[in-house]
Amino acid sequence: MRKAEPIAGLGGAALLVAAILHWGEDMGAVQAVVLIAFALLFLAVPIVSVATSGPTKAVAAAVLASAFGWIPLLITVLQLLFGDGGWVSPLAALVGWVGSWLSLRDESTPGATVPEVPRRTAPHAG
Predict the structure, then answer these.
(1) CA 10 to CA 13: how far, in whole Å?
(2) Do residues 5 and 45 lie in contact, with contact meaning Cβ atoms separated by under 8 Å?
(3) What does the alpha-carbon distance between residue 100 and residue 66 come to, in Å, rounded to a whole number?
(4) pLDDT of residue 77 exceeding 80
(5) Global pTM?
(6) Model confidence over 6-29: pLDDT tens digits?
(7) What whole-number distance in Å separates Cα of residue 5 and Cα of residue 106?
(8) DSSP string, 48-97
């Protein structure tokens, strides 16, 4: 697991808890479902990294989370400004988005195995 992937997972877990706790109070069902979907995407960043052996699927999850992570941040900031929302949801969305973006900057590939390449003899000249 790369260093910033737990940060994305922490933001996803906090966003998931905040969306579930405030489902009927401060936000509607559609908004809560969208936030839960993005929380699961943020949670997928570290989970996929641990569950797979190569970096391909983990990088794909981080790319999706960092490319679309601004959407839950926008939703929660608008709720904070124009609704009765608290500061936990925007902070959780920001942590998940930044954590997924920072995991893309880390070029290490923990858990990746070196492929076995068969050695062949060089052809004879002549």
Answers:
(1) 5
(2) yes
(3) 5
(4) yes
(5) 0.80
(6) 999 999 999 999 988 877 766 678
(7) 10
(8) HHHH-SSSHHHHHHHHHHHHHTHHHHHHHHHHHHHSS--SHHHHHHHHHH
Residue ranges per domain, the chain?
A: 5-105
The interaxial angle of helices 5-21 and 56-68, nearest 10 deg, is: 50
| pLDDT band at residue 55 using 50, 70 and 90 as cut-offs | confident
Give the helix, strand, coil percentages of the chain, each rounded to 5.
65, 0, 35
Sign of the C-alpha dihedral, residues 76, 34, 10, 97? Answer: negative
